[in-house]
């Protein structure tokens, strides 16, 4: 007697696989048409590998981007007294491309991306997510879909050889004069931010005892209605400060002090999208005192200077096609971020 054949319970392998060449797609410089790197269109490179003997007749690639916001609305409550929430979802990207199967075991593709896309992010209240969907069609009844998340990153420094401009802040406040020079941007890979400070104390028996230097991460949210753009109170995250004790008898304005603050691993790079923005600033605190502790207490002086903290593209020069040294492309750090195509039409719903 013949026994009935048992059906295999093992999962079947997919007929095709979607592979990406790089872990992330890199965009260089601010999202602005005046950015020189806006003319260099980044590509999403990958391939589709076929595992089954299926005669595919058509392959469609579609990259979609969605940004979401879900945050408590300040000062607004529902009928039960619970805080209301601002909830909105916006499509920010839709790029399509058709591929023609050649009968080979794999087919490569390159998808050009708009230069002003916001980078991927996932915070407590907002997100920017990109998804690549490949639709394979083989005749009227055979269809297969594959999808994969795509990581988009924006870098404000193209490579480690670029010349970074500096910003200088000089002020005289009563008997204290100071001059602080900071880099306009700093790479996370550097591990620290270094500033140069000079000061002079024009007060008898008073000098700078210590200088605290810490980094701040500012997380800001905003949403747009038909009437205006509304900004919510920022969330400020302060990292541990480094303490610099000046050498004795070093209160002359011509003496330069190099003060350093480490970049902690938990710090996130600069981010800009239509709902959330992450920026950074240097917080420098001067503490005053007298050698004999006989002078009255003087309040510390706090100075805050903005800085762009970013990371380099994967592989630096080789991944971006940007030269280094004298041939490197300079990024204009003064350009404002500009994303009108999805900020102009945002639907916002406020509810519990």
TrEMBL record:
GO terms for cellular component: cytoplasm. Residues 96-150 form the Arrestin-like N-terminal domain. Coiled coil: none annotated. It comes from the Eukaryota. InterPro entries: Arrestin-like_C, Arrestin-like_N, Arrestin_domain-protein. One of its GO terms (biological process) is protein transport. PANTHER family: ARRESTIN DOMAIN CONTAINING PROTEIN (PTHR11188), FI21816P1 (PTHR11188:SF17). This is Arrestin-like N-terminal domain-containing protein.
